[in-house]
Amino acid sequence: MTAARRGGLIALVGVVLIGGSGFSCLTQMTTMPGASFAGPAPALTAEEAALAKSLEADVTHLAVGIGERNLGNTPAKLEAAASWVEGELLDAGYAFTPEPYEVNGRAVKNLVADLPGTRAPKELVIIGAHYDSAEGTPGADDNASGVAVALALARSLHATPQARTVRFIFFTNEEPPYFRTPAMGSDVSAKNARARGDDVRAMLSLETMGYFTDAPNTQHYPWPFSTFYPSTGHFIGFVADTESRALAHQVAGTFRAHATIASEGSTPPRFIKGIDWSDHGPYWRAGYQALMVTDTAPFRNPHYHEATDLPATMDFARLARVTVGLEAVVRDLASLR
């Protein structure tokens, strides 16, 4: 855990414990509607088994077939990853729009593909994932997993447009040294959306989603968070801030009604360091409701930002279960209920 993450969590503990209402505050931040899935999961259906294989193939292509992909060490592979995502979107029936910009005189781009809404096309639900990897890692979990799930959702939803427009965005430059700078792809995207006056009703950042384990004491949080969350890394997490609490509750409630995998959520205040550390953060700063879907990355996965972040370390059956739950979430968010 970085010093910044540790400091932010310590700050949160101090804030919520001052004044005698700490337990109540933490409960509000960590309680989600519905019941997290518990007990043995049913066998995958034939469709879910096929989905698991498709997810594995996509992650393997990005992490092994292409490998490390970033502007610093491997710019050609970063472009190869973008070209591959473009091809997958075209094969799924989408017309994609590049969102180009420059970083130190070098051309980079986000990739945008819309499933136009049938009743409220100007109202947007954004599904985002970054296709770059950190320097020195092939980035299977971080973040080929998020890209694979975003592509799976795009393929599945294409035949059934929703009331609202579902916009898929594949971001570049999420990883350091561009993180939380104007060169971050999602920062460019969120600012462009705000400048256009886009009516973004929800943004989901798909980030590090494929590492799960049933081994005890594999999920690490400092006290008092260990009081509220499991100590086993078998669940998917939803991370929002207080301003996006309503979105987090809607997402968690819908997910739990459909998914056959455990889930947890948190909505601490935005000033806590670390909770904005992905592509949802720029959307918060642009004034939109957003959340991150994650396996909690360094709080669980020992391969995070390491050369060992490879497909063999991932659980694609569980990732398929997450994808099924998220499809129900996207359909719900894109409806006009």
How would you explain this protein's 3D organization?
It is built from 9 helices and 8 strands. It has 337 residues and is of the alpha/beta class. It has one domain (3-333): Zn peptidases (Aminopeptidase). Helix 1 crosses helix 2 (22-30), helix 3 (46-66) packs across helix 9 and helix 5 crosses helix 9 (316-333). Mean pLDDT is 92; it is low at 1-20.
Give a quick set of tags describing it.
single chain; 337 residues; alpha/beta; Aminopeptidase; 8-stranded mixed beta sheet; 8 strands; 39% helix; globular
Percent range for helical residues? 25-40%
Number of helices, where a helix is a run of at least 4 consecutive DSSP H or I residues: 9
Strand order of the largest sheet: 1-2-4-3-5-8-6-7
The rough form would be described as: globular
Unreliable residue runs:
1-20
The oligomeric state is single chain
CATH level-two architecture: 3-Layer(aba) Sandwich
Task: Summarize the helices and strands and which ones pair or pack.
Blueprint: H1 3-17, H2 22-30, H3 46-66, H4 75-91, E1 96-103, E2 106-115, E3 120-130, H5 140-157, E4 164-171, H6 185-196, E5 199-206, E6 236-239, H7 245-258, E7 263-266, H8 280-285, E8 290-294, H9 316-333
Parallel strand pairs: 3-4, 3-5, 5-8, 6-7
Antiparallel strand pairs: 1-2, 2-4, 6-8
Helix pairs in contact: 1-2, 3-5, 3-9, 5-9, 7-9
